[in-house]
Specification:
Layout lengths: L1 H26 L12 H18 L3 H14 L6 H19 L5 H15 L7 H17 L3 H12 L8 H16 L36 H8 L6 H4 L9 H11 L57 H13 L3 H14 L9 H10 L3 H11 L7 H13 L4 H14 L4 H12 L5 H14 L4 H26 L24 H17 L3 H10 L2 H15 L4 H13 L1 H12 L13
Helix pairs in contact: 2-3, 3-4, 4-5, 5-6, 6-7, 6-8, 7-8, 8-13, 11-19, 11-21, 13-14, 14-15, 15-16, 16-17, 17-18, 18-19, 19-20, 20-23, 23-24, 23-25, 24-25
Length: 593
């Protein structure tokens, strides 16, 4: 009897609850929004965000503005960093598209202020979420030339407890002090226009890239300089390449066992075979001797390294030198301090390298800048520190050919597509300051990664030609060394190729490279496409290279030769010269390809 009464009571309670829900549904429709596992309002907000992102991707700004308006009204209390980022970023993009280039920076500043208030300083958000909007606000102020607002924001940021542990915050603070210091130097010394191309008098450089402090304030400044050389090692030595470490090994072997002969512009003087194992380097190397390591006497230093107008008259230079020393104030010291903190953080923030080096150079601390670069060239996966080091060495230690060439070699090892570094090595070689065998290896590494232009192939073929001539000179000197004694005729047959290209690890590397290039550079389909393009110079220089690699019987050489017979006699003579002095590298390997 007791059990039956309890069952009836439970039934009555369930019926009463169901009846109350029905009444609430009729009298208060919003009650239904709380039913189910997820609120209908939350679902609608998610739909609006997805729709907004879709419209922005389609650049449908008119429809996006309507959706954004509804979303802003319905999410006024939302403090989520990710959700607020979507709203306020789209708001700023809409302003840019509506107003074009005439956008009022004050409106953007107000959006940032509202955005930062919405996120607040809640401890539940990560350091990145709490600081990121404030950092973006500071960078926006810097790009607009609003240094004072950026400075005030930096002061507030530095008061946060977690500030010191955030590398990006340190870098942005360093950049702000950089701009504060830079804006205080004489106006005639500053580079105002981001696209301004100022080249000092007697400049030895051309086609430079400029990077004033304004366009150094973000990651993009570094990325711009890396854009032309972004290929990674894994892309080079991937599935398309039959060898992963042979190129690197061959280059290191080449550096350790380089002939280092003394080359002259008009020809080559080679030692005897007996002396070849004991060659002495004749390349100039003045060690760390940098007698003119001062920016005030620099000629041709790129403006992206030193964003400064250097006055050339002695009177102005003396006045500026005195003023410069007075200007190394707290702003300068703080800029160097916080950029260093960002660079030496764990993990290092390598984006701080360029602005730090710029600051050290602006402070006339050339040796300190080189010391900083020395610490990071080995630890960085990017080529930027090496590029900076090479530029400084060329400017302030231009006779140290060994160090300069080593920098460009290291750049090519990390980024084999870098045509600028290869061009600098070619220039050193033409001046007699870089060996033919080393240049041959560097060009080969470049060709492993690129489909180069005709001049690269021309230089590649010329290296083989010079090496073959060097081998002939070696043999001639051995036979005619005793000029006072009776002369005797010899009928001899000698190898035109240095043994280190065919033997050992280096020989193995070249063996695989030749086999790979048959499909990469000298296949029948590539030849047909090059014939269709009609670039006879490229065909000629590639055929000359192929004659040294595969011999004059190569299909590529034969077809190009037949083509040139009817079209261009000058290029035909060039190809004939290389065919007559063909090295035939593949024939000297232990096993035919």
């Amino acid at each position: 009897m007791t059990i039956r009464r309890n069952v009836n009571d439970d039934y009555s309670i369930a019926s009463r609850d169901r009846l109350e829900r029905i009444i609430l549904t009729i009298t208060k429709p919003s009650y239904t929004l709380a039913l189910g596992f997820e609120s209908l309002r939350v679902q609608n907000r998610s739909r609006l965000r997805r729709l907004l992102r879709k419209l922005v991707r389609q650049h449908n700004w008119k429809e996006a503005s309507g959706v954004l308006s509804v979303l802003l009204k319905g999410t006024g209390k939302d403090r989520s960093p990710a959700k607020n980022r979507t709203k306020y970023w789209v708001t700023m993009e809409l302003l840019k598209h509506i107003n074009g280039e005439c956008i009022n920076p004050t409106k953007i500043l107000r959006i940032y202020e509202i955005w930062m208030k919405k996120i607040g300083l809640s401890k539940k958000w990560s350091i990145k979420d709490r600081f990121m909007v404030r950092l973006e606000f500071i960078l926006f102020c810097l790009t607009q030339g609003n240094v004072e607002d950026a400075h005030q924001a930096v002061i507030c940021l530095m008061q946060e407890r977690e500030f010191g542990s955030d590398p990006i915050s340190n870098m942005v603070v360093g950049l702000t002090f950089y701009q504060l210091w830079y804006s205080a130097i004489p106006k005639e010394m500053q580079l105002k226009d981001l696209d301004e191309s100022f080249t000092p008098l007697h400049s030895e450089m051309s086609g430079t890239i400029f990077n004033t402090p304004k366009n150094s304030v973000g990651h993009d400044a570094v990325d711009i300089h890396e854009a032309d050389s972004s290929i990674k090692e894994k892309d080079i030595h991937g599935a398309d390449s039959p060898f992963h470490c042979d190129s690197y090994t061959s280059i290191m072997l080449e550096k350790d066992n380089a002939l280092d002969q003394s080359f002259k512009r008009q020809g080559f003087y080679m030692n005897t075979v007996k002396e070849s194992g004991q060659e002495k380097s004749s390349f100039s190397n003045h060690g760390d001797d940098m007698p003119h390591a001062s920016i005030f006497y620099a000629h041709g230093l790129d403006s992206w390294l030193l964003p400064l107008r250097l006055l050339r008259t002695s009177e102005n230079l003396e006045a500026f030198t005195y003023l410069h020393k007075e200007k190394l104030n707290d702003y300068y010291k703080n800029a160097v301090k916080y950029l260093r903190l960002a660079l030496y953080s764990t993990p290092p923030l390598f984006e701080a390298v360029l602005p730090l080096i710029q600051m050290l150079l602006l402070g006339d601390q050339v040796k300190e800048a080189l010391n900083e670069l020395e610490k990071f060239v080995c630890n960085s996966d990017t080529t930027l520190p090496l590029r900076l080091k090479a530029s400084l060495l060329e400017q302030f230690n231009s006779k140290n050919y060994v160090k300069i060439s080593a920098c460009f070699e290291d750049i090519l090892k990390k980024d084999p597509t870098c045509s600028h570094s290869l061009a600098r090595l070619v220039s050193l070689h033409q001046n007699g300051d870089y060996s033919t065998e080393q240049l041959l290896e560097m060009i080969a590494l470049h060709l492993d990664a690129t489909y180069a232009e005709c001049n690269t192939w021309k230089e590649f073929a010329a290296c083989f030609l010079k090496l073959s001539e060097c081998e002939e000179d070696r043999m001639s000197m051995c036979l005619d060394g005793n000029e006072d004694g009776p002369k005797q005729s010899y009928s001899i047959r000698f190898n035109r190729i240095p043994k280190n290209l065919t033997d050992g690890i280096l020989g193995k590397s070249w063996r695989f490279r030749c086999k790979w290039w048959l499909t990469r550079h000298f296949s029948r389909s590539i030849l047909n496409s090059e014939f269709a393009a009609g670039d006879l110079q490229l065909l000629t220089y590639k055929a000359a290279s192929a004659s040294h690699l595969y011999g004059i019987e190569s299909e590529y050489v034969a077809k190009v030769y037949a083509c040139l017979e009817n079209k261009n006699k000058d290029l035909l003579l060039f190809l004939q010269m290389h065919m007559q002095n063909s090295v035939g590298l593949c024939k000297n390997f232990d096993k035919n390809l």
